[in-house]
Amino acid sequence: MTKLCLLLLSLGFLSFFRAAFCCPIDQKQALLKFKSAFLKNAAVNSSSSDGFFSFALEDWNSTSDCCTWDRVICDSKSNSKAVIALYLDSLVSLQSLEPVAVSSSVLAPLFGIKSLMMLILSSNHIKGQIPGEWIASLGNLVHLDLMQNNFTGSIPPQVFHLRHLQYLDLSENLLTGVLVPEVGFLQKLRTLKLDDNFLGGNIPVEIGNLSKIQELSLRNNHFSGGFPLSILNLKGLQVLDLRENLFSQQIPTEMGSLSNLSTLALSKNKLTGVIPSSIKNMTKLETLKLDNNMLTGEIPSWLFHMKALKNLFLGKNALKWNNNAKIVPQCMLSGLSLQSCGLVGPIPEWISSQRSIDYLDLSDNKLVGTFPQWLAEMELGTIILSDNNLTGSLLPSLFHSRSLSLLDLSRNRFSGELPENMGNATTIMVLILAENSFSGKIPSSITNIYRLLLLDLSKNRLSGTIPFFDPTSFVAYVDLSFNDFSGDVPLTFSQETRILALGGNNFSGSLKRNLTNFYMLEHLDLHDNRITGEFPNFISEMSTLRSLNLRNNFLQGSVPCSISNLSKLQILDLSHNSFTGSIPSEVGNLVGMIETPSTFSSISFIFTFSIEYTDLIVNWKRSVQGLSSGASIDIYSWLDLSKNHLSGEIPSSIGKLRGLKMLNISYNGLKGKIPATVGNLENLESLDLSHNSLSGPIPQSFTKLQQLTTLDVSNNHLKGKIPVGGQMDTMDDPTYYANNSGLCGFQIQLQCPENKSPQAMEPENESKEPWFAWEAVWIGFPVGFLVSILVIFLTGLFTPKKPTQQRSLLRRHARN
DSSP per residue over 674-737, as a string? Predict the structure, then answer.
């Protein structure tokens, strides 16, 4: 009996011990509520085709102690075992390229855990505003990380009243507004990261009150004004990153007073003046990034005497290199960028003393000579020597490297054959040798470069066959355009190829169905080859295509109705072929041209830049079609069916394509009236209907084309008064209307008879064209951020402009 009592007593003590040292019930319930809310919200918002995603909090359940859960830390020093830290980053893993967005409302249960000292919610794509009132309840917070979400609105003022806060990271969100003076209340703050948002205005002087701060990073925002002088009060500062903003004026002469700085990054601003000599006093400085500003003067040689310096980026300023200076570095650099710094002569040999260098950018200078042997043997990770005057052939020893990730030698005068051992450099991810004079075949060993993502050998003299790449390789961008390749269109690339540019070669034969194996292909450019046959119906199955360029080949037959299946297509160029039949009305269902394009694909790498799809067909369109040159290429969309044998009438459905910047259907056999719906193409800049058999009046709806800068309706059978108003008043070059015997108007200096008003010359039903029906369609599309970009783009273009020289270029091109 005594033993039984002792056993029961011990069990009682054990039960009491467990109850006393488990996490508080209310906190456990709060965490379970959060898990449930997050999971439900993620499931609803999942954009994957099958809705499958994995969730990280599998061991969170009602039967176990929350202090034993993954990502939960409890206070082991107190009897309450209260939750003090939550590591809730990257909770969802989705089997799709699209992230799962969840509402900020799911966070509500967490803010009842008053004992929290550390809260990490990064990389969850949480949308909505940062809940300021809830955050205010967490008065013990020391560490708050909301990085890489989709938070919008301004930074709530309650954040700046968390008096214990030492670490605050709100970077990679969609935050707007200004940085308020209350930021100075965070007296204990050691790290402040607000990178990659849309914050603007001046930096408040109160930033200088953060006396304990060690890292201040405001990169990639819209902050403006002069360099915030109060930052010079922060003597303990170790990292200062103000890159990619709008700061102007000079770098303060007292900059060197921040003697504890290890990183000073001011790249991509509008800073002027010289590099302050006080910077030499920063004896701990390891990284100095001043590139992409408007700095002037000579690059000081004392920079190379800073013994701690490891990274020096000075490119793309108005700085000048003293080519007579004898540089004997006392530092050991890891990265050096002297892009556009006026270097002349051979590649500086003092660089050979930098045995630890991994990144070298000497592009856009006036370097001459050959690729030096010592550089080929240095085991760099990145070599960028583009836009110089280097000559000779490539050294085989360059490809013995086991470190080389990026090699860009484009726009030089290199020649000869590519080294056979090129494939030995298996670590290369980006290989750009464009615009040289390389000849011969592409070495078959190139397919051994298993990490290759981007291959650009365009504008050389290469010939022969294309090596066979493993279909499972990672090559996403291939540009072999403007060489001398021949034979069938090669399909020997990775199935994950996203951009395939083979234009300007001698490929022949018909297109093969194997093209559909490129299931991620977004841009297909086969212009200026010798491709024959009809437009293949299977291309309409390539649903990922954003641009298709088959210009100047020998294609024939009709344009299939199934073209409308390419819902993402933003650019279609079938010009200079032999297509017949009518323009299918289904062309008006190309969703990618109905919506205003704003997100052209770019391929980002682990490097600090991205390779954008910019010059395959865009640049020549700008120059000869009159497209605006100041806008982002991302928002271009056009349709070019010119110089074919198309017949029939222009389908009225073409007026649905409101995203178009350029429409060219010239040099065909089109007849009938110009549909009034063309006036609905509100973003149109260039319109060419010339050299057809169109009749009737120019629709009065053309006055709604407020962005129009180039117009050509010449060589038709048009009649009546040329519309007056809007941009049509600036279309006053008579050659735009030449060889239309029935037209009149001030634009061609021919007065109309008094009874020929615009209304009289247009049928009644044309003036009643229901353009607003398409307006409803437009409003139905998601806008938000896309529209804000468009508004910025349209600023300054709305005011009618006089014709430019680009229009004459259009006419010259049309006659070629």
Answer: PPGGGGG-TT--EEE--SSEEEEPPPGGGGG-TT--EEE--SSEEEEEPP-SGGGGT---GGGG
